[in-house]
From TrEMBL:
The gene is Aste57867_3005. Keywords: Signal. InterPro entries: Ricin_B-like_lectins, Ricin_B_lectin. It holds the Pfam family Ricin_B_lectin. Coiled coil: none annotated. Residues 1-15 form the signal peptide. SUPFAM superfamilies: Ricin B-like lectins. Residues 118-238 form the Ricin B lectin domain. This is Aste57867_3005 protein. The lineage of its organism: Eukaryota, Sar, Stramenopiles, Oomycota, Saprolegniomycetes.
Amino acid sequence: MLALSTLFLATYVAAQPGPNPCAPQIDNAISAAFRTCTTAAGFTNPWSYPQLALLGALHSTTSFVHGDYCAGTFDPACDAFAALPLNPLTNCDYNVYKGQWFNAFKEIPTFCAADVPSTLTVRLSVRSGKALGVTGDAVVVTAPVTADMHPTFDFDFHNHDFQSSDNGQCLTINDDKQLVTTPCDPNDDKTKWSVSQANNTVTHTATGLCVDADPTDDVGIATLQPCNSSPNQYISTYEPLDSPCSASFAYDADFDGEDLSDEIAYGGPESCCSSCQTYVPGCKAYSWADGVCYYKKEAGNAVFKRGVVSATVPSL
């Protein structure tokens, strides 16, 4: 069975008949629209192919980028991108990356179909196999994820709040900037949050501070702290998959071993594992960044890069 990442890429490429190259002025217009929209979506590292990462996210209804884009969160930065299909001359093939063609006229209208949900159920995962959960007195703490304890939150892309599956209340903060829950109120600014899946951070909209939780603490109370890219502020909203690579994850680390190939990842860093094992000859490791799998001939050295997750792959 093909890995989800491989299936997704195959579907994406198959949708691009190419080459019906865009006229130079249209090519420039598409490129400019991509540039502002990728920046708004948080894909700002040029080495991680922002255009490819944005399209991968917009084709996935389990992506926060997809939900925020369809809810208008990135407007006006993405207005020019969304308006591209209004020009029939964009019915052409734009080369996103290595012959992966994008037809703005045909594809953009499909991103926000009428049946796209306005909420997304996620686990707020920290390191060491833990996630944010809610205690009986409505305090948010880190706790191990087990078969019987797997807390989730429903994120509403219009209200920008997290509703806990534990007690039905919404995530907020108390006077000590500790995370707690409170009855949901769409008019309460203290319950508004923004998520960057590119950087694996959750930010409190009203204060601009980041969720911070120490996964090594037995009962780590989650708080807000100035955003500083520390390991305690790694909050993943990708639902972890059952993956033999998970045990070797290196967070905020890019393996500098020789690249073999890359492809769009349909999901989090776990989604690259089976493709590396089965479908990429010579693949022994990979780095996942901004929704793209980078397959490696060997791991090499781990170089610090915020938001990148790397893993070595066990032999089958």
